[in-house]
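#onboarding

Welcome to the new folks! Below is a worked example of what a typical request in this channel looks like: someone posts a single protein sequence, and someone else replies with the predicted structure as tokens. Don't worry about understanding the tokens yet, we'll cover that in week two.

Example request:
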Amino acid sequence: MPRHLRVRIALVVLVVAASIWYLYPPKKTINLGLDLQGGIHLMLGVEADKHVASQTDRAAEDLKGALERKGIGIRRIAREGNAAILVELANPQAWNDALTAVSEFGTFERRDDDQAAGRFRLVMSERRISQLRDDAVRQGLETIRNRVDQFGVSEPTITRQGSERILIQLPGVQDPARAKALIGKTALLEFRLLDERTSVEQALAGQLPETSEILYRRDVDKQTKAERKVPHVVQKRSLLTGAELTRAEVQADPNSTGNWQVAIEFTSTGARIFGEVTEQNVGKHLAIILDGSVYSAPRINERIPGGRAVITGQFTVDEARDLAIVLRAGALPAPVVILEERTVGPSLGADSVRQGLIAITASAAIVFVFMLFYYRVSGLIADVGLGLNLLMLVACMAAFGATLTLPGIAGIALTIGMAVDTNILIFERIREELRVGKSPRAAIDAGFRRAFTIIVDTHATVLVTAVILYNFGTGPVRGFAVSLFVGLAASLFSAYFFSRLLFDLLYGLRGKVAKVSI
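Example response:
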């Protein structure tokens, strides 16, 4: 046997062995998409206006600090709408000094000046508003993706839809309520002091300072499991936020049997701020607030160095674990709302898989029979190559952890048709060469050579289409693109390289051949 044939046989054996290896347990298996194994489909709307409003609040706080550092008295400074700040000076004589401080806020434009009253309004530029809205969606997308990755969902689909929507598909999720809570939680962690000069009774009666607000702590009775909300008067100013977190881990609560807590650790900057806050407020109560709810409000007995704290709140282990996930992934820049929700049951997925397999099996069987009937021995060669094609396709999807969707099954069926079409092109070229009187070996050589350019052209155009579908498509469309791309690549190998090898083995090693069964 010639050396070049031995090399080609070894390559085919290697490909078959690798394919079987990746399909044999406990190696990777093919992930099933949402439409096959069930799960949840969510369309989220990002409330980008609230991100603009929060940035305006932050700018107002920064402006207030800048004016106070210059010794400029302020009667009132407050946000108006989502993107404007109203400033009223205590002394109109400080007008010029105030404008000097305001000039540092380049993303705001000064309007409605009233120098005599010491009042002006700052309005955020439209360009900055547009940028903040886009940032809210982009950052929200990445934050949700980080949360879902830590949640452990295999092959999730998380993509942007339109200007302010996010599409999420979570295959195989068995607890939709928990997943929705994890994804939708804003997870804004804040450390604020309690307003201990204002009693809860005064606050509830309306005697609430402008710098404070009422927030509630959820309290569950251990015996009756009854839930009640405990009010706290909390200062509005945040001393520290979750943006400075580096670690959040679940721990058993040593002070409460059966409850869990989340231990957190800050960055070096956060640790410094936390140390200063606790040192300057010994004897006061520091509220730990998440998404506007008070989780605990411990008394500061001494300076706490090292930047470590714990969040308690009568958590179950799952609640503590999910809280740790969202804290590690970071807070959403803006709240999200569920605009659309669909749950796909596993029974629907099983029916889809069964019907898809029936379709593939039926189409493959018809093709096998046709090729045998019409092309005889050459048709048998094509059928063996088609079997190798399917083996390689499934093995590649398993090796790369690709997700199989219902459109992906359609892509496999399409691949079968294109693989057979490649063999038909070759066989018809061989027939043409035989009709003009060439010998069987010469006809086989010429048939494969003449068909090669056409095969490469047709496969290349469809491969480019598959790449475009994968890059710009979502969910099922990408599943179709993956199976189509892998199937076509396998088709090139099986229909041309492998089929040519079988022709060479069958007709090239038998000496002079009088006839080709085609």
